[in-house]
């Protein structure tokens, strides 16, 4: 396979996966003792750490909502996370945009009315970036919120899909994302199938859009299985420790 060939004649991608195959997913919760909830997630070589603090007193009184909690999301990328070695500060336009997407995704899902006059802080650290950063941030946030005991209507599971050369594919890696691939990230509530976020990086022909969306939805369902197992395994582990 040449360096620029993203899909082999046998239908394999540059990292050996089939188009509808996720990268290896590793996830765990309760990784930060100082946070109310935390999660660590690996999508292949993309690695994200999420920490949740709250509900707690809002830092700025002017922002307080009397009937619900406010969500605050901050995202940082480690300077060594990509080959670029470019330091990004918290006011970087791309980071602010991604943090905004995460906030928009969870505002309809967190049952904020249970926590009036308070604030829930979500901090995301991208340790390594190899494609699919937004989906990884959303999935890590879901697990960290659950770990913190924050009430939500459902899990939120995210997956990216795009058109890689001649075929739709899910969970794009950095090389695929960097090759002018049209892609979309969706966040889904697995129980209802409701979409809470749709974010497109580039234009995609309408003839290809339906298949890309379908595949992204299938990827979200696969992510739900992984995330739910992580949460259930953690709960069973805690139950065993309490029984001793």
CATH architecture: 2-Layer Sandwich
Which structural class fits the helix and strand makeup?
alpha+beta
Our count of domains comes out at 1
Number of helices: 4
Assigned CATH class: Alpha Beta
Overall pLDDT level: 90
The residue ranges in which pLDDT falls below 50 over 5 or more consecutive positions are: none
- The overall strand count is 9
Question: How is this structure best described in words?
Answer:
The chain has 244 residues and is α+β, with helices and mostly antiparallel strands. It has a single domain (25-243), classed as 2-Layer Sandwich (Ribosomal Protein S5, domain 2). The chain is built from 4 helices and 9 strands. The strands form 2 sheets. The protein has a 5-stranded mixed beta sheet. Strands 7-6-8-9 form a 4-stranded antiparallel beta sheet. Helix 1 (93-106) packs across helix 2. The protein is globular.
Quick overview of this protein structure:
The protein contains four helices and nine strands.
């Amino acid at each position: 396979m040449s360096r620029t060939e993203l899909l082999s004649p046998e239908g394999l991608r540059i990292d050996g996966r089939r188009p509808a195959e996720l990268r290896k997913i590793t996830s765990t919760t309760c990784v930060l003792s100082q946070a109310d909830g935390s999660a660590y997630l690996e999508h292949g070589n993309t690695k994200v750490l999420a920490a949740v603090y709250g509900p707690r007193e809002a830092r700025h009184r002017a922002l307080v909502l009397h009937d619900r909690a406010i969500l605050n999301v901050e995202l940082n990328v480690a300077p060594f996370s990509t080959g670029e070695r470019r330091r990004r500060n918290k006011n970087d336009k791309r980071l602010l945009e991604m943090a905004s997407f995460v906030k928009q995704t969870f505002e309809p899902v967190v049952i904020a009315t249970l926590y009036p006059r308070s604030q829930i802080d979500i901090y995301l650290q991208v340790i390594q970036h190899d494609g699919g950063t937004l989906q990884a941030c959303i999935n890590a946030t879901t697990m960290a919120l659950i770990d913190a005991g924050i009430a939500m209507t459902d899990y939120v599971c995210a997956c990216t899909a795009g058109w890689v050369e001649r075929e739709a594919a899910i969970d794009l890696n950095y090389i695929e994302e960097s090759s002018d691939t049209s892609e979309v990230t969706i966040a889904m509530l697995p129980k209802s199938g409701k979409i809470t976020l749709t974010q497109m990086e580039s234009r995609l022909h309408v003839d290809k859009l339906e298949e890309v969306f379908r595949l992204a939805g299938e990827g979200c369902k696969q992510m739900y299985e992984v995330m739910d197992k992580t949460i259930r395994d953690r709960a069973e582990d805690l139950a065993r420790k309490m029984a001793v």
